[in-house]
Amino acid sequence: MLGSSMIDIRDLANQDLLDLVPYEPGKPIDDVARELGLEPASIIKLASNENPLGPSPLAVAAMRDALSKSHFYPDGGGYHLRNGIAEKFGLSRENVVLGNGSNEIIELLFHTFTRPGVHEVITSKNSFAVYELMAQLFGLRCTKVEDNADGTFQIDLKLMLEAIKPQTRLVFITSPNNPTGTRVSNEALEEFIQKLPSHVIAVLDEAYYEFLENPPDTVRYVKEGHKIVLMRTFSKIQGLAGLRIGYGLAPAALADLLQRARQPFNANLIAQVGALAALKDDEHQKRTRQITDEGRAKMEAAFKQMGLNYIPSHANFVLVDVGDAAGVFNRLLKKGIIVRSMVSYRLPKHVRVSIGTPQQIDRFLEELPAAIKG
Ligand SMILES: Cc1ncc(COP(=O)(O)O)c(C=O)c1O
Question: Which of 245, 344, 339, 319 is nearest to 23 (CA)?
Answer without folding.
Answer: 344
